[in-house]
Design brief:
mainly alpha; single chain; elongated; 2 strands; 60% helix; two-stranded antiparallel ribbon; 7 helices
């Protein structure tokens, strides 16, 4: 079995992907609330003025970008949701994605209607960045099995 086949065979299912999204959303909302509290303390006010909608819209976009790009880059393909479900992002070839691929994954999330791509075969942020979300244990087991099979017939040293 070639590497692309192992990646495709071990992709996370829709339920796992939804759970990833759910937990990442909770963490993101908590991060935004924490940021709002810090800004409120800094500005010495309990409630942010209503005319700051543009500021908060831009802030949320920046925080969302930072959450996905920085967290996935630093953890080599994992977010809080992926840690919970035992999944991670890999390239179509099963490698750790490059910073550019993580950037494309993150920026694609801002494309209108991108969340609806969840109902297709491959999410746009996976398709356009040439990445996949895989089940770590199953993926690693299949890699080990392939390695073991390739060693059959080799002479022992």
């Amino acid at each position: 079995m070639e590497m692309n086949s192992i990646v495709e065979f071990n992709q996370a299912n829709k339920r796992q992907r939804f759970v990833n999204y759910f937990f990442d959303l909770i963490i993101f909302i908590a991060t935004v609330d924490f940021f709002k509290d810090i800004v409120a303390v800094f500005l010495h006010t309990e409630v942010m003025p209503t005319n700051s909608d543009l500021f908060w819209n831009i802030t949320v976009i920046i925080l969302l970008f930072l959450y996905y790009f920085v967290v996935e880059s630093v953890t080599k393909g994992k977010t809080v949701g992926k840690l919970i479900t035992g999944t991670k992002v890999v390239t179509e070839e099963g490698e750790i994605p490059t910073a550019n691929q993580f950037l494309i994954r993150t920026l694609t999330r801002f494309v209108p209607f991108e969340p609806l791509s969840f109902f297709g075969e491959i999410n746009w942020h996976d398709k356009w960045s040439h990445t996949r979300v895989i089940k770590i244990k199953d993926f690693e087991n299949d890699l080990q099995n392939q390695l073991d099979i390739s060693k059959i017939g080799e002479k022992e040293a």
